[in-house]
Amino acid sequence: MKIRIESDQKNCKKLWNRFGHPSSIFSEWDFRMSFFTPAVHRLHFMHFQVANEEIAAPLWYDKEKKYYEWFGGEFCEDNVFLAKKKPDIKTIIASLPRPLLAKAIVDSSPFYKKDEIKYIRSVSFVKNLEQLLRLFSKKHRYNLKRGYGQIKRLSPKIRWITDVKDGRKYLSRLVKLSKRRFPEGNEDESIFFRKHMEGCFLALIKNQKSYRLKLLIVEIKNKTAAVDIIAIYKNRYYPLIGSNDLVHFPAVGNFTTYLEFEDALKNGCDLIDALQGDCNWKHRYFDKQPLYKFERK
Questions:
Q1: Is the pLDDT assigned to residue 52 strictly greater than 90?
Q2: Do 166 and 201 fall into the same domain?
Q3: pTM of the prediction?
Q4: What is the reported pLDDT for 86?
Q5: 153 has pLDDT over 90
Q6: How many whole angstroms separate alpha carbon 274 and alpha carbon 140?
Q7: Mean pLDDT of 195-217
Q8: b/e map of 116-155 (b: 16 or more CB within 10 Å)?
C-alpha cells in the first residue's frame, strides 16, 4: 500500500475533485472551504493506493480541538471516504491518524458506530403547503399552524436577504441571538463561541456559486425575533443554522418553520434537508436518516 499526504490547498482540491461524491451541498469544495481557517486548521488529505484501488480520506487537523476530523469540520455532513466505488476501509484503518473523530458518514460499515440522526423530508410529490401539512400528525399540524397564527397577529416584519452585503450585516444579529440562547459552557453552547466561526459564515455567504444562500429575518416590535440561514442547492433546501428569541416570542420557531416549508415549495425544491440533531422539534416534521461515525483514540 502506498500513502501520500497532501496539505497544499491546490493539491487537496485536485484530490477532492478526482472522486465522485454524494449528491449534496457538502460535496462542493467552495462550501467546505468556507470553514477553513489557517490559524485553526491544517489540511491533511490522505491518498491511499491499495492494489488497484484508490481511496482518499479528506481530513484536517483542528488545533483547538486537538484531533483530526473531516475537511469542513463539525458543520459538514454526508461524509464518505472517497473512492471510485464503495471502499473497503479495513485496508486503511491502521494508517489513519490518531486522534480522529470522523462524523456524519453516509455509508454504513462494521467499523462505524451510530451517529446522530439526520432529518429529511421529500417534497418532490407535494404540490402546495396544505398538502405538505397533511403529511404531519394532527397534533403537530395544529401546533405549527397555531404558532404561525400567533406570530402573524403580532404583524411581524419579514425579510428575505439575498444580497451579500446585507447578509454580512444581518449575520451579526444571528451571532448575538445564538450566543444568548445557547450560553457558553452549556452542552449545546453556540458554535459562535469559537471565534473563527462568524468569519466562516461570512465566507459561506461570499463564496456562493454552486449554491444560493438567503437569510430569513423576522422582526417584531423593533426586536429581532429570529434569524435563519438557508441554502438552496440543486433543488435541495437546507435550513443551515438559525436562532430566535423564544423568551419574548415563544411561537417564533413554528413561524419560521412554516415560512421555510412554504419557501422550499415556492423554489421548486424536491427535498428539505434539516441536517443532524433533533433539537427537540425536527421529529415532528421530518423522516429519519441514519448517519455513522468512526473514531480512533
A1: no
A2: yes
A3: 0.96
A4: 84
A5: yes
A6: 17
A7: 95
A8: ebbbbbebeebeebeebbeebeeebbebbeebbeebeeee
E strands, the chain, in order = 2-6, 41-50, 53-62, 67-70, 82-83, 100-105, 113-114, 118-122, 157-161, 212-220, 223-233, 236-244, 271-276, 287-289, 292-296
The grid coordinates listed for 212 are 444560493
Q: Are strands 41-50 and 2-6 parallel, antiparallel or unpaired?
A: antiparallel
What pairs with residue 293 in β-bridges? 113
Cα dist from 154 to 174, 217, 228, whole Å: 21, 15, 19
Asked whether residue 265 falls in the same domain as residue 129, the answer is yes
Tell me: do 140 and 18 sit in the same domain. Answer: no
Do both 214 and 112 map to the same domain? no
Averaged pLDDT, 41-45: 98
**Does residue 208 sit in the same domain as residue 84?**
no
Contact predicate 226/257, CB 8 Å:
no
Q: What is the mean pLDDT of residues 114-121?
A: 98
Amino acid (1-letter code) at residue 224: T
- Whether the link from the prior residue into 99 is cis, omega within 30° of 0, is yes
Q: By residue range, what is the domain housing residue 16?
A: 2-116
286 lies in some domain = no
Write down the residue that cell numbers 477553513 correspond to: 36
- Note the Cα 184 to chain centre separation in Å: 21
Alpha helices in the chain (DSSP H): 9-18, 29-33, 129-133, 138-152, 164-181, 197-206, 252-266
Q: Confidence band (pLDDT; 50, 70, 90) for 121? A: very high
> Residues 108, 216: one domain?
no
